[in-house]
Structures are given as C-alpha cells and as structure tokens.
Amino acid sequence: MYFDTIIKNGTVVTACDTFQSDVGIRGGKIAALAASLDSADEIIDASGLYVMPGGIDSHVHLAQPSGDGIVMADDFASGTLSAAFGGNTTVLTFCMQERGTTLRESLKAYHAKAEGECYIDVSFHLVVTDPTSYVLGQELPALVEDGYTSIKVFMTYENLRLRDDQILDTLDSARQSGALVMVHCENEDAIRYLIGKHERNGELAPKFHALSRPAAAEREATHRALSLAEIVGTPIVIVHVSNRQAMEEIERARKRGSKVAGETCPQYLLLTADDLDAAELEGAKFVCSPPPRDKESQEACWEGLQSGTFELFSSDHCPFRYDDDSGKLNEKGKRHFRWIPNGIPGVETRLPILFSEGVSKGRIDINRFVALSSTNHAKQYGLYPQKGTIAIGSDADITLWDPHKQVTITNDILHHGADYTPYHGLEVVGWPVLTMLRGRSIIREGAVQGTLGQGQYLRRTRI
Length: 463
Ligand code: DUC
Ligand code: ZN
Ligand code: ZN
Known about the structure:
Distance between the termini: 35 Å
Radius of gyration: 21 Å
Shape: globular
Strand content: 15-25%
Structural class: alpha/beta
Bound molecules: dihydropyrimidine-2,4(1H,3H)-dione, zinc ion
C-alpha cells in the first residue's frame, strides 16, 4: 500500500496501549499501523519519539468580548497557532451568548471570527446566559441537532450567572436534547459579600481576589450544581476544579449514581494564592477564577488526576495582556482587584506541564497522559473516534513528542498574544517536536509549516 506519509520508528501511545509501530497516513486519515511500512511520498523518522494523538484542549477562550475596554489577548489565529505549538490539534472554545440576544446570533458572530482564521480544528461550546423559553425550547434542541452538543452555565459573575431555577430549566432542556452541560461553580452572593467586606477595609490589591473567592464558595456551588443535575437527571461536567472539597462533592455525587465528569487545569497544580501576593501588581498576572489555592490543594488535584476524579485536564486558556491598558493593568484594575480581568494564558504550556510534572516525575503514566490531554476530551464532547486516538480510520491528528527535551518556559518562546506566562522560569522535560493536523505538518521543530485557515469547524455528536 502506498501512503501520503509514513511516520517510522516511533513509539505509538494511546490512552490504553504503548507499542512500536509505523503509522501510514492517506487522505488525512490513519490508514495503517504495522511493524514496517515503506512506500510514501514523505517518510518522517520518529526514532526516540512518542507518536501520540494530537492534544485536545476542551476549555479555551478566544476572541471573547470582555467589555469595558478590555481585550482578550488571543483571537482565533494567534490562539490556534499557540495551541499547535503546544502539541494540540483541536480546541473547544466558547461562544458567549450576550443577554438579550439569541444563541444563533452569537454563533454567527463567533463563526465570523473563526472562519478562515484557524490553524487547527475548533468547535464551540455554547454559553447560555439568557435562558428564555425560545432559547431553551426552540434554539437549543435545533442547535444540538446541528452538532453544538455542549453548553456552559455560570453560577458566578453578575452579567453571566444563572439563578437556580434557570439552571434547572437549562439542565432540563439539555437532558431532552442530549446536550452536555458544563458548570462554573462559585457562589456569586458569597463572593459579592466578601468583595464588599474587602472594599470597606480598603483591601484592594490582587491578593484579595483569591480571598474573596474561597474554597467554600466553590464547594457550595459544586454541591448545588450536582444536586440540581441529580434532580433533573442529566450528566454534567464540573469545570476548572481547584481543591479537595469540590473534588469530594464530585466523588459523593458519583457514589449516589450521578454521571459527572471533573476537569482540572495547570494553574491548580503549579500556582497558589501566594502568587497573587507578588510585589507591586505582579499578582494580577495570576488572577483567575476559581483562584489557585495552596500546596495541599495542588496535591489533591494530582490525586484526582491519578484516581479518576478528573477525566479532563484542560488549560482554561483565557489570556489578557499584563502591562496593558486593555488587559490586567487597566486603569481600574490597577486600583482594585475587582476590575482585573479574570483568566490566564496556558494553551501552549498545558501538555508540557502535564507531561513534565506528571509523566517525567512519575506521577502518571504516559497512557494516562494521553487520556487526560486528548482521548477523554474527544469522548466527552462527541469527537471520538474521529479525534483523540491513533487508530485506523481516525483523523491523522498526531503529535510527535520528545520525552527528553528540556525547556525552560519563558514568554519569548511562546506564541500566544499575552505578554507574559504564569509559568515563567519553569523547567520542563518533554516537548512536542511536530504537530500534524489531518496528515499535514503544522509545526515542525519550532517552525510553522501549516497555513492559516487549514483548521476546520467540527460538528460534534451527542455523547
Ligand atoms: N471561567 C472560565 O472558565 N475561564 C476564565 C474565567 C472564568 O471565570
Ligand atoms: Zn469558568
Ligand atoms: Zn474558562
């Protein structure tokens, strides 16, 4: 058999197996796995490298309007390029419904932003902020049919949050149409109470962001989201879990029979609330929600990645520039933590961090790495087996990984639009050396080989 490309001499890794095999690619798909393949237009030597399914990051924010003169640091072009440099071949981003508009209107705007602007494949989660009877009764069922099979709801932020009755209605609509609901769990009323208290005390530095969003506010909302989902009888994903108390809520709900997936992110493994207390206003670089906690919480999150409390490891890439009037240090943000935009960059560093801190340091094995960073995302969000594995018939979305390459993370080696990385100075072992999308190299040895617009929009199936 003749192939377009053969990847030779590599070690293929999937979520369950590790084996020596050549990979034959034809028409953008994996066409053969065999001990030795020879005839192809191009032969790529993968000696000493892992041949893994491309990373799938199912929690990425790109080009979201952020109001008040704040601008997200990545659009679809820079965000998907940065993701590709980090070994990813698919990102799932958010399409944010603005209150007073419909989901279709929001989708039109996001498709216009993404069209022709992506280096890798993308698909959108729908953020429901205005669950009218039209949105839940008419739009959502039709959109699920059209392949928009996941939605996100917020329990915090005044302009985004849903009340419990709205969450119940949204969960019910999702149950009927087969959509999966992701929930941002933090108790808005408790947070507003604490923000008010800090304000009255004149406590306005970045570190008070973390103090106004304690683990108890996350735990309570996690418990409530799980209870509401149990009452409706529909599966949910608890996103960006930061601490043990919230994890225990997930585990308890599972013991009661609920179908719930858990997600955690690099910031909860490597950062703590102390980072928000850095000198001057440097702490603003680490403002995200839920905030990073403490060393014990980091340990808990590792345990969750090992034990299965978490199936998903995502970046929650939500980039803002630091030293910029339209970013973290906007005029109001310099004076009050409340106005520092929430979110940190991380789409390019997610895989190296999980590999280095997880696999190289012996906390997880390489198959668990693939499951947490690719396969489970594809399964959870209706892309499997087209994406997320190395199997005959799957898209040839492949990352070649050098397990020994040592890299010190600094912002100048990254390709996102932010002017900093929260992981500055981190030394990692293991780095992607080639990212291939549907059989075409996009990034090879640190150089761009792909073209803008080669990424496609992915319709997804119900799970
Ligand atoms: N939630 C997210 O999922 N990302 C960034 C900010 C937030 O609150
Ligand atoms: Zn969130
Ligand atoms: Zn997010």
